Amino acid sequence: MKIAFSTQIDKDVLVFVDSDTFFIRPCNLQSFVHEDKVRLFRIPNEGKVQKSLKWHRSAGHLLGLPPMDYSGARYISNVITWRRENVIKLCKHLEKISGQGWLETLCNTWNLSEYILYGVFIDKILQEQSGHYYDEQNICHEYWASSGPPMSDEELQSFFSAIRPEQVAVMISSKVGMSVAEYEKFFNQIT
Q1: Residue ranges for the chain with pLDDT beneath 70
Q2: Which three-class secondary structure state does DSSP give residue 10?
Q3: Could you tell me the pTM of the whole model?
């Protein structure tokens, strides 16, 4: 969906804010661009977890790279920026490798992370010609969980107390099973 959306709009820079994310501080979109280069969230040697290895393998296969289990970096977070022209290049590259349309190629792929696919394409294919600069700073304070139980008030207090000054957003996964009302008071204390 992110790739398809990116091919249809007429903006040069795309900012994706995933569900369950809310902003706690002003976020200047111009801060994602430095000297005509767009921020790409990337943390080397992080994100090598069992759940994401299949996404790295798929990205390498789709891009025609030698077989790999892990590309060497984490690209997934909750506030992500891309360049539209790179998405178009990615689609053309997918078509060249697969011999079919990019959408059909992606629809025939079981294990897919668009963030990892785009990140690996930038790292391994476009490299310095991508118009990106790498940023390891995660500007979203995140709480991931595959299921409950919900955080206690003490855990919520600890979570919100750990927000760093550069973080402009917070994400608490809806899979935890908490309503916003359960942590709204902590949110209100920091905003």
Answers
A1: 146-148, 191
A2: coil
A3: 0.92
